[in-house]
Amino acid sequence: MVQDYSGNVLHKGHSKDGLYCVSPPLQQVVSSAFVGIRVSITDWHRRLGHASFRAVNHVLNSNKISVEVNKRHSVCPDCEMAKSHNLPFANSVNHATRPLELIFSDVWGPSAVTSTYNSRYYVCFLDD
Question: In what residue span(s) does the GAG-pre-integrase domain sit (predicted)?
């Protein structure tokens, strides 16, 4: 039984294996809660953490979830970038001969979350 602070009974249910099953009254059921939209397999690919389309199909079929069938899957730009193997720059022929002769740097930011000292940018220095 579920009661509010004043003692009014809000719900009643029966105990089964230590759990209480509470069913809402039929007049409170909203039909829109049972309405869904069909989502593309590309959307599911993103929702499932960019899993392979074979894995996405397996998960969806195992759970009897229907999707928009598109025979040609569009290439996911995020996966394409993550799997790229080409370096953005050619390998350098010249190398530094002593410490601090050639330093590379990279700046990242602004971050939506600030650091402990309220910094929003990150800079990295690399000695060749």
Answer: 18-84
CB-based burial label for 40 (10 Å; 0-12, 13-18, 19+): middle
Q: For the chain, give the number of residues.
A: 128
For 70, residues 6+ apart whose C-beta sits below 8 A from its C-beta are: 40, 41, 42
Token digits for 18? 């230590």
Give a yes or no: residue 55 inside a domain: yes
CA atoms within 13 A on the CB side of 116: 0
List the domain range (segments joined by +) for residue 105: 95-127
7 domain-assigned: no
Same domain for 100 and 75, yes or no, is: no
**Residue 53 CB neighbours (<10 A):** 13
Residue 6 lies in a domain: no
Same domain, 77 and 46: yes
